[in-house]
Specification:
The chain is α/β, with parallel strands linked by helices. The two termini are 32 Å apart. The protein is globular, with a radius of gyration of 17 Å. Helix 1 links the parallel strand 1 and strand 2. The chain contains 9 helices and 5 strands; from the N terminus they run E-H-E-H-H-E-H-H-H-E-H-E-H-H. The protein has a 5-stranded parallel β-sheet, sandwiched between helices.
Amino acid sequence: MTGEIRVIGVLGSPHRNGNTEILLDTFLKGATEAGAETEKVILSRLSFSSCKGCNACHKTGECILKDDVHPIFERMLSADCLAISSPIYTMGITTELKGFIDRAHYIWVRHFKLKTHPLPSEKKILHRGYFLSTAGMDRDDVFSTAVPMMTALFNIFGFSYCDNILAKDMDGYGGIIGNPDILASAYQSGNDAVRGILAKEPCNIVK
């Protein structure tokens, strides 16, 4: 089955080999060992500008900015599973990930405004999206602003928002390695995602 399912992980953290990347790598390892082909996109390595809000894409469905996001978006659209990751900085996702999401506006225009690229009805059912995040603080609301942005992102790309793998209180744990339970959960989520896609089973949607 190797290679039949494509999983793309997006690292929104500018800090390499930190808590968020370890969490994402663990999810991708679970997916790989379930038979998927995986790819990790590191946003801090890409060259792209923020959305200019010009709305030129509202007429054409094309973005006037030509940079590294376009081939990434095309690969995301053709993937079976997306794992989007970001640490929480000042109660929100990173600048890198927010700018990346904003640049997908032209994809939204194609799908929902101009409707030149309609999404097949079965696509959302069979394509899975996951959000992985870490936070230093031990607050129940520390991830609350991130979830609506993930809802928007997965909707733009036509993916079901299946689950959150959230690791708060990293300061208390001394880092992600100090919380083996959340790493086990990330691995199992990656593994289960691929098995669910192969079985053509819809997931429970994050509300």
